[in-house]
Amino acid sequence: MAATATTTSLEDVPSLDIMTELLRRFKCSSKPDKRLILIGPPGSGKGTQSPIIKDEYCLCHLATGDMLRAAVAAKTPLGIKAKETMEKGELVSDDLVVGIIDEAMKKPSCQKGFILDGFPRTVEQAQKLDEMLQKQGTKIDKVLDFAIDDSILEERITGRWIHAASGRSYHTKFAPPKVPGIDDVTGEPLMQRKDDTAEVLKSRLQAFHKQTKPVIDYYNTKGVVATLPAEKPPKEVTAEVQKVLSS
Prior knowledge:
Blueprint: H1 2-11, H2 15-29, E1 34-39, H3 46-57, E2 60-63, H4 64-74, H5 77-87, H6 94-104, E3 113-117, H7 123-135, E4 142-147, H8 150-158, E5 160-162, E6 169-171, H9 198-220, E7 225-229, H10 234-246
Helix pairs in contact: 3-10, 4-5, 4-6, 6-7, 8-9
């Protein structure tokens, strides 16, 4: 039955979309495989660089939170287990998360590799991830460390304002709206996210440094960490990323 459903759904896909996807796969076939981890504090620019890297190297973006929700919605065996755990108010185990990553990596979109963002957060998670990849005969190629001074992050984050309905974002210093506090398009008031304040940022950064420094040290011993100057403008960071990934 599943095969018929797939055939039917393909018949319903416009030819242009099929051709575009075929061209993308053809272009991707010559790209080297890459398995990447992005590490950086909130506001360091990972969210800006990630889609660029994904498109350039034909990788899939594995965000653990999204994958957990997708596995739960799809009712996969691991998703069912994760749902039971979450309903009990417990944290999903590292083994379960690694299992869900393992499952996601088998998708055609992950054929050339992946970008992991938000995982691993601890050395134990990094070890479990490495064990799983080793079983598949692969390993992490590069860990991109988005290094940036905490004081720069404070300026970046506390100046962020968003238009809630559209998701348009502004910055009081770097990308101000035409009228302070007002969305350029609709004229509606802008708002600040609850966690875009100096106090929240401070505690998030403390947790980040405490948790993540050991992870960077762990991958440093394997010689796969590339430290990026994340305080630079986005285009310059993109150029640095490309330099690192082409070497």
